[in-house]
TrEMBL record:
The keyword Iron-sulfur applies. Keywords: 4Fe-4S, Iron, Iron-sulfur, Metal-binding, Repeat. Residues 1-78 form the 2Fe-2S ferredoxin-type domain. This is FeFe hydrogenase HydA (NuoG). The keyword Repeat applies. The lineage of its organism: Bacteria, Pseudomonadati, Elusimicrobiota, Elusimicrobia, Elusimicrobiales. GO terms for molecular function: 4 iron, 4 sulfur cluster binding; ferredoxin hydrogenase activity; iron ion binding. PROSITE patterns: 2FE2S_FER_2, 4FE4S_FER_1, 4FE4S_FER_2, 4FE4S_HC3. SUPFAM superfamilies: 2Fe-2S ferredoxin-like (SSF54292), 4Fe-4S ferredoxins (SSF54862), Fe-only hydrogenase (SSF53920). SMART domains: Fe_hyd_SSU, NADH-G_4Fe-4S_3. Residues 78-117 form the 4Fe-4S His(Cys)3-ligated-type domain. PANTHER family: NITRATE, FORMATE, IRON DEHYDROGENASE. Residues 139-168, 182-211 form the 4Fe-4S ferredoxin-type domain.
Length: 576
């Protein structure tokens, strides 16, 4: 342990704790633009300078460890002046069009400029700087290079946390630009569209590709029949845009708001998650019995699908062929629902509300996404886009009455709702796999071994005397590590160390998705996940195969899980 003094308060911290972290422990907030709790410090912005008393030194708090006996001053008039000066220098190289910026009112640079009372652009805008790119090529996330403050957060999250290496800084000095290597378009780079860069950007340099206008247009088109579905993780994060405590489950208010916006059918992706489990749980049991292409790897995360196709195509046979839940709701809405409600499927305009940017890519990624004969999902919006639409519509979100989703694509089990947290798909699948293997029901449905934020989780699950070896990875760098282990045993001709593997591209699973409200930390991921586990606990039905709506859809329309109709509507192919 190290003892030191910060602003006159004695503090004892673990060796290696930075001054920034130590100050936060005693409720002192040192401003920073480059240090994010998910990332290692790299002293990119220089705003976090503090003074070491008795030495005259000013050090960067984000990357300086507190040492024994140090006396630190974090705030005094001179330090504030230095910080203000750093901000002014950043602003000298930053457009001042806050009013029309995608991060207006939700920008860390704007907030700091306001807190520091910056009124003049003290330094003139640097001229002759290399022109930055505006890149919308992925149609999932847009890069507005002129807004980049070179903090390095997006580059680090893409390279280190996701191990994708799509983004980098090119050039030197004032000509440094944010770009994929070779200055190619992002869509031609290894980018998997996870959106983590946009979620970690403090300003408006990388943002989701906004498609709200297309949805407004559809809602006001009398020829269309607009319907919508809500992903598991959206219900526990949308409240952050309306001042609710993190993790509050707002399913009822979300449904009412979507109805008020004009959607004629409001469905729940959680029900699609239950359908996915019926297919994937059965797929697992079949493969497990035959020891065929083990382990089975989940495939409902589209950034992960893109990553696997790009970087581990030798493992494609291990991938579950089952579509993701929102695609299942999409195809059911334009087939089963359309028939039942006598609506022309070509008029149905299906919108998915997702915590994810990659879902914007998934909806047209292959011909299977047109299984209804139309594009099964027309538009996928992020949580952030929906929050803006609700605000634009004048809906009093806090006071709106709760409503229920529409029958029959709106009823879900507790297993469906936990999909939004890392380990949730695995837990939901195990609940149903137990039933398929044993013909019995679990007395205790929780598998807590697969929960939590550890990057790679492993467990041996006992199913009535049979051991199922499972692993869960989230955050693509962790996934890559796990896959390399599996590939190694495969190359050596040894049996797979796992039977079933769950993968989510984003840390924490979808609760930490790239399209979620900004400011993600592990603390926040835990609270959002806790909201989903609470929803599961309070659900009357907690296993997908016991969801009466699922049973009815199979009985009336699909037939058997993995049967011909299920294959036609609910399964995918992958390409090398
Ligand atoms: Fe997810 Fe999903 S759980 S990917 O994370 O499987 O985006 O929330 O909607 O489709 O259900 C995201 C979240 C979903 C899908 C579900 C899966
Ligand atoms: Fe990298 Fe993901 Fe951003 Fe693409 S979307 S640049 S993979 S962080």
């Amino acid at each position: 342990m190290v003892k030191a003094i910060i602003n006159g308060t004695e503090i004892q911290v673990k060796e290696g704790t930075t001054i920034l972290e130590a100050a936060r422990l005693v409720n002192i907030n040192i401003p920073t633009l480059c240090k994010h709790p998910d990332l290692v410090a790299d002293a990119g912005c220089g705003i976090c300078v503090v003074r070491v008393q008795g030495t005259g030194k000013m050090l960067r708090a984000c990357c300086t460890a507190l040492e024994e006996g140090m006396k630190i001053t974090t705030h005094d008039p001179e330090i504030v002046k230095v910080r203000k000066n750093v901000l002014e220098l950043i602003l000298s190289n930053h457009p001042k069009d806050c009013l029309i910026c995608a991060r207006n009112n939700d920008c860390e640079l704007q907030r700091l400029s306001s807190e520091f009372g910056i009124r003049d652009a003290y330094y003139p805008l640097i001229v002759g700087r290399k022109k930055h790119k505006h890149d919308e090529s992925t149609k999932t996330i847009d890069i507005e290079g002129s807004k980049c403050i070179l903090c390095g957060r997006c580059v680090q999250v893409c390279q280190k946390n996701q191990n994708v290496w799509a983004l980098s800084f090119l050039g030197r000095g004032i000509n440094t630009v944010l770009s994929p290597a070779g200055e190619i378009e992002l869509n031609d780079s290894p980018c998997v569209k996870c959106g983590q860069c946009s979620n970690h950007c403090p300003v408006g340099a990388i943002v989701e590709h906004d498609e709200t206008q297309k949805v407004w247009d559809a809602l006001s088109n009398p020829d269309l029949f607009p319907v919508v579905q809500i992903a598991p993780a959206v219900r526990v994060s949308i409240g952050e845009a309306f001042g609710y405590p993190i993790g509050t489950n707002l399913t009822g208010k979300l449904i009412s708001s979507l109805k008020k916006l004009g959607f004629k059918g409001v469905f729940d992706t959680n029900m699609g998650a239950d359908m996915t489990i019926m297919e994937e749980g059965n797929e697992f049991v079949h493969r497990f019995k035959k020891k065929d292409n083990m382990p089975l790897i989940t495939s409902c995360c589209p950034a992960w699908v893109d990553f696997l196709e790009k970087f581990h195509s030798d493992m494609l046979d291990n991938f579950s062929t089952c579509k993701s839940p929102h695609e299942i709701i999409g195809v059911l809405s334009k087939t089963y629902y359309a028939k039942k409600h006598n609506v022309d499927p070509s008029k149905i305009f299906m919108v998915s509300i997702m915590p994810c940017t990659a879902k914007k890519y998934e909806i047209h990624r292959s011909e299977e996404m047109f299984a209804s004969g139309h594009q099964d999902i027309d538009i996928s919006l992020t949580t952030r886009e929906l929050a803006r639409m609700i605000k634009q519509s004048g809906i009093d979100f806090k006071n709106i009455e709760d409503q229920k989703a529409d029958s029959i694509l709106g009823a879900y089990s507790g297993a469906g709702t936990i999909f939004g947290a890392t380990g949730g798909v695995m837990e939901a699948a195990l609940r149903t796999a137990y039933h398929v293997i044993t013909g019995k029901e679990l007395s205790k449905v929780e598998f807590k071994q697969v929960r939590g934020l550890k990057g790679i989780k492993e467990a041996n699950i006992d199913i009535d005397g049979t051991t199922v070896r499972v692993a869960i990875a989230h955050g693509l760098a962790n996934v890559d590590h796990l896959l390399k282990e599996i590939e190694k045993t495969k190359a050596e001709g040894k049996p797979s160390p796992y039977d079933f593997v769950e993968v989510m591209a984003c840390e924490g699973g979808c609760v930490g998705g790239g399209g979620q409200p900004y400011g993600v930390t592990d603390e926040l991921r835990k609270k959002r996940a806790a909201g989903l586990y609470k929803d599961d606990e309070s659900s009357k039905v907690r296993c997908s195969h016991l969801n009466p709506a699922v049973i009815q859809v199979y009985k009336e329309f699909v037939g058997e899980p993995l049967g011909p109709q299920a294959h036609k509507l609910f399964h995918n192919k992958y390409t090398k």
